[in-house]
């Protein structure tokens, strides 16, 4: 475990050095966050509630969605693909820890920095201009932060599985773009799942994707309470474990088929 946290620490320091990229990302997220908020305002058009959400809830939803973009790498994460395509995977396999744990530690450091520098900053700036819906109790805050951690757990498992396509094709980015595009829709990132038709919402809830975005936001807004929170957290944990098990099995098959370019 000590080596795991050493890699997390190295990843943290590496991410902190890219300050210009961080603030450029914050500015971009705020711009598109404003556009999403305006869409929500237009949707309500004088109505007090839509699908059980007030306008304040909907704007808070957009703020939280923008805040987790970098934390969850929603629009794409290609590190493992690049490692395989460049041949660096050979050296990675020789490290004194498993390939999966190495990338998990590296991604955890990246996620922590982005949660603090980008996520928290975006929420703070939002709160200066609009009134956000906030959790009403300490338990709700704790459940939200736990859901955020488990959301990253599920997200990493899915992103790692998608990246493993590089073991079978020299250009897996097309697969990745499709997979991450589906993630943005089914996770509830673009809009609350409650706004979709019931059949589509039910379909989304049968996948791991809402566990990344929708579940933490629902807890934050108080859409689920009590026992429902416990069930939602358990669902996140189950999906996270299932995806990591799948990643481990697929990785083992991929390594047996690996051909290093030029070697």
Strand order of the largest sheet: 1-2
The N- and C-terminal alpha carbons lie at a distance of 33 Å
Unreliable stretches (pLDDT < 50, length at least 5) are: none
Helix/strand-derived class? mainly alpha
Q: Mean of the pLDDT scores?
A: 89
Radius of gyration: 19 Å
Q: H/E series, N to C?
A: HHEEHHHHHHHHHH
Counted up, domains total 1
Describe this structure in words.
With 263 residues, the chain is an all-alpha fold. It has one domain (2-256). It is built from 12 helices and 2 strands; from the N terminus they run ααββαααααααααα. It has helices at residues 2-16, 19-44, 55-67, 69-72, 79-86, 89-92, 99-129, 138-163, 173-186, 198-205, 214-221, 227-256, and strands at 49-50, 53-54. A hairpin with a 2-residue loop joins strand 1 (49-50) and strand 2 (53-54). The chain is globular. The two termini are 33 Å apart.
Describe how the helices and strands are arranged.
Blueprint: H1 2-16, H2 19-44, E1 49-50, E2 53-54, H3 55-67, H4 69-72, H5 79-86, H6 89-92, H7 99-129, H8 138-163, H9 173-186, H10 198-205, H11 214-221, H12 227-256
Antiparallel strand pairs: 1-2
